[in-house]
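Ops channel
N.P.: pipeline sanity check, posting one input/output pair.
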């Protein structure tokens, strides 16, 4: 439970741009910057029901969408992998644990209408 709380605090700090993690390498910092730049695109894709948040902390195409949407999702997921790996290194958790903790956080804090995959793998709109 303590590890989960630490992971949630780290996620909030990373995704809210609070300088909490020290010693981040350049690729991690660059990935977080790219994630910040994509927020409005990702939110638009979520609102349109084109993408959803899976239970591993990554985006998945839900329906429709263009090749541009696919590119945005691929880039976002690559950057999330970098951030999750950096957080795993900082906390001693695995990148998979970090991603799943992030998925739970996203599930709790997403707006109505966003597609979310629950822990058992079923999709539903929040």
């Amino acid at each position: 439970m303590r590890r989960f709380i630490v992971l949630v605090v780290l996620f909030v700090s990373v995704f809210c741009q609070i300088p909490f993690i020290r010693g981040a390498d350049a690729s991690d910092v660059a990935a977080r910057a790219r994630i910040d730049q994509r927020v409005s695109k990702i939110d638009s894709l979520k609102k349109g029901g084109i993408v959803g948040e899976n239970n591993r902390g990554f985006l998945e195409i839900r329906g429709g969408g263009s090749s541009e949407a696919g590119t945005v999702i691929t880039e976002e997921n690559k950057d999330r992998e970098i951030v999750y790996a950096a957080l795993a290194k900082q906390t001693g958790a695995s990148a998979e644990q970090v991603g799943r903790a992030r998925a739970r956080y996203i599930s709790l804090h997403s707006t109505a209408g966003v597609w979310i995959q629950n822990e058992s793998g079923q999709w539903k709109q929040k």
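N.P.: looks fine end to end. Residues 2-13+25-125 form one domain.
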